Queue: 2 jobs
Job 1
Amino acid sequence: MAHIVTAPCISRRHADCVEVCPVDCFHLSESRDMLLIDPLECIDCGVCVAACPENGIFMEEEVPEQWQEYIAINASEAASLPVVTTREAGRRVEGS
Ligand code: SF4
């Protein structure tokens, strides 16, 4: 069980979530232009859910049907990507 970052993060990346996570389990995917959570590090505290202005983070069992693929994406890709612990490092600079 873990929390999952889904499609609303793509190309937005406000990255408020990374500053509230107590175990630093957010990673940056430049190729997907989104943040991902390493499910092996996530302790399911849930504080990142409210921090996301795009409502893009869900408990694994509550991920909407159309974004189910992100469960596997977070699990298979996050751990190999750079850890992000500050908004400056994680947020999208241009746009939004
Ligand atoms: Fe981090 Fe808690 Fe969100 Fe998991 S649920 S990613 S531990 S803030």
Job 2
Amino acid sequence: MGCPPVRPAAHHTEGVGAASDDSHTETSGRSVIRVRRSGPLSGSVRISGAKNSVLKLMAASVLAPGRFTLHNVPRIADVALMSELLEGMGATVAHGAAGSAPDVMTIDVPEVMVPEAPYDQVERMRASIVVLGPLLARFGEARVSVPGGDDFGHRPIDMHLRALEQLGATFTTSHGYIQGRAERLTGAQVLLEYPSVGATENLLMAAVRARGTTVIDNAAREPEIADLAAFLNAMGAEVDGAGSSTITVEGVESLHPVTHTVVPDRIEAATYLAAVGMAGGSIRLLGARADHMVMLLEKLGDMGLRVDDGGDVLVATASDRLRSVDVSTLPYPGVATDYKPLLVALLSVADGVGILTENVFAGRFRYIPELVRMGADIRVEGHHAVVRGVDALSGAPVRAPDIRAGAALVVAGLAAEGETVVADAEHVERGYQDLVGNLARLGADIS
Ligand code: UD1
């Protein structure tokens, strides 16, 4: 196992705990997914636009007044929450309006807005904090509720604030709100302590309107950051190097609205890869990008899952029992932390012993007791999960603790004898457009 990267301070103080995906606490507890042992799977799934990109593009729209049009926007709960947040600020958002395709969103951004992300919104979706940078850039002020602890522990935003301060913003905190001000942001050399996705995005969206040049060092390199930069450049920004560790931004005086197509969701694609790995068969992922999942595909290849890149389609085939491997999650281009529950599910029925090491978020592995209830043999030691593959899982009632863990439990149910009932499935709906329908169309026994 290689050396883990330098981790944010919070990582060390947190002990166990923390999400592998953006999370919030509200659950209605009503939604349930039932799945029975299935396979082999066959057929095609169209991969939606990436949740973790579209939320940031929507936030970036506040940088310029006028009408934005986004294509490939998934119909998921988090997108609806971000729409609500923008509407609360004064924008008008239409997703799949009459006369347009269901994946098309228009955002009408007014001249005057209320630059605020209220408590209610931030509590329900932590990603709301990415409005901080663009609001400061356009209006010179922003008021954002301090993200609280959630189901998964504390997830700080110290790096976001420190980075924006280096561009000249000042922050005060009172009554649970961060109040940010900036007469005029000024470009600066900013070295991030850790390649935080959210901090890179907030900084990028602020820097595009700052006076002069900003250089972001140790920037996050995720494909969603490159997508945000492409969006900003189309708006008239001058961003260079996004997707690498050093991003250079020349501030510009004004930006304009654009039409943009959201990058495909690599985590959604990984979910269907895990499904076919679990249930066997051969499936086609339409619109998925192999070049955004290189490390994952290598690992899955080592496990015996064959993935052929046909340009605009990935063909995934699992004909035999998968083999165990060791995996470490890392910032991109490493194996994403969001894939982790899916990988643990795959390892739980693979041949041999696999060790999964979590390096991005302190690893609470909250879904692991649920997998153990399904007969998996998993031991957690600190931020390592030691997974001994069993011949078969056994269906059981389980609870989805968050989006990806919920999806992983559903996928695990494909290889479990009898029925698995995943409660709190509304978590899954936050990140997946029709996971159940898509799996059913691939031949899974699911409702
Ligand atoms: C985003 C993704 C999430 C993914 C994560 C890592 C969205 C909506 N969410 O989350 O699905 O799992 O990237 O790929 O895009 N940290 C600090 N201080 C900060 C900021 C972060 O200590 O100011 C720490 C976090 O606690 C964590 C690590 O840095 O340990 C990585 O977090 P970050 O990359 O910022 O993740 P998010 O942007 O929150």
